[in-house]
Amino acid sequence: MSKVAAVAVSMVLLAGLGFAQKQTDWINTSNSPEIQYRVQLFDDAKTCYLDFRDKKQGKGYTTFDAAVDYKSMDSDSNGDPNSNSQSSTKIKTETEHIVTASSQTGSARISDCSGISEIRVNYIQRH
């Protein structure tokens, strides 16, 4: 019974890997190189998952605001992004409040996202 369960779990995990694109390496934010991020895109969900870390992280935690410029598909006049009418990619900005710790990255999820253009951080506080 345990072999069957192990095979089933392996199949589920491998199937899940097919939906995700490759996760990027760590990238410096545009205005504060000690804060880094990496992106994982899920095509089917049109969602970007972001991890953040502080290279100057001490034993406490770090908080900051991240302004995320991301690519988003513009919907047609009926709100349908999948219609055959003219659609275009727009750059939108979303602000996320992030908390990192020495043993854990901070995270954010951006819906309707097809890629990250730039991330700027503000109000960095190390505790």
Write the layout of secondary structure elements.
Elements: H1 2-17, E1 27-28, E2 35-42, E3 47-54, E4 61-73, E5 89-101, E6 106-111, E7 115-126
Antiparallel strand pairs: 1-2, 2-3, 3-6, 4-5, 4-7
**Largest sheet, strands/sense/barrel:** 4 strands, antiparallel
Number of strands: 7
Rg (CA only) = 18 Å
- The neighbouring-strand order within the major sheet is 1-2-3-6
Distance between the amino and carboxyl termini: 49 Å
Q: Class by helix and strand content?
A: mainly beta
**What form results from the Cα inertia axes?**
elongated
CATH topology: Immunoglobulin-like
DSSP strand content: over 45%
Q: What fraction, in percent, of the residue positions are helical? A: 10-25%
Q: What is the CATH C-level name? A: Mainly Beta
The topology string of helices and strands comes to HEEEEEEE
Low-confidence stretches: 4-18
Separate helix tally:
1
Mean pLDDT: 82
Give the domain tally.
Answer: 1
Architecture, CATH level 2? Sandwich
